[in-house]
Design a protein that fits this description.
two-stranded antiparallel ribbon, alpha+beta, 56% helix, 8 helices, 15% strand, 3 domains
């Protein structure tokens, strides 16, 4: 064995040992860097002193979000972010089901699926109303679901659907504004 081969073997052994002790997030961080963000976990509509409705944050948590995703999410208002989360939760219920076991009912869900059947039914009903309105108003529901449901980037979706750059983002903005209007939330003017 030559000296160069011995060095390569030693480097490979060190890399393998380091990878076994490193968390998967460390590998992910090198490939897709993240930034720290605050995510609102719970919200409710409350009537303000002047009579208008406003979303009130019940709790926030600090977490990390991929920089690629952070640019998209930072461009959305808080109401649009909440709309995206609701759409994703309804999609998760439709795609995966509730996934409930009777012994898990008292525990808090960590995968985004609502624990109560009534909340899930309301989300799914609103999702179907939103999807019908998207069709009626010419907003591409499938394009939005590629981003929110399946996790594709806007650029990937534009390429996959053979659309001009920016088409998916425009559809996403229109779809989230439509969802906000259905919920009675304020819509940001563009």
């Amino acid at each position: 064995m030559t000296r160069a081969q011995a060095r390569r073997r030693l480097a490979l052994q060190r890399a393998t040992a380091a990878s076994e002790t490193a968390a998967p997030a460390a590998w992910q961080e090198r490939q897709a860097p993240t930034t720290a963000v605050e995510v609102r976990l719970g919200q409710r509509l409350e009537r303000q002193g002047d009579g208008r409705l406003a979303l009130v944050t019940l709790s926030q948590v600090r977490t990390r979000r991929r920089r690629v995703d952070a640019r998209l999410w930072d461009g959305l208002s808080h109401e649009e972010q909440a709309a995206a989360e609701c759409i994703w939760q309804a999609f998760a219920v439709l795609a995966r089901g509730m996934g409930l076991a009777s012994c898990a009912l008292p525990r808090e869900r960590v995968d985004g699926t609502p624990a109560d059947g009534e909340g899930a039914r309301r989300l799914v009903d609103l999702y179907f109303r939103w999807a019908r309105r998207c069709t009626a108003e010419g907003v591409e529901h499938a394009t939005i679901m590629d981003v929110l449901g399946y996790g594709y980037s806007c650029a990937e979706t534009d390429r996959k659907r053979r659309r001009r750059k920016g088409h998916t983002r425009a559809q996403l903005d229109a779809g989230l504004a439509l969802y906000c209007r259905l919920r009675g939330w304020p819509v940001r003017r563009r």
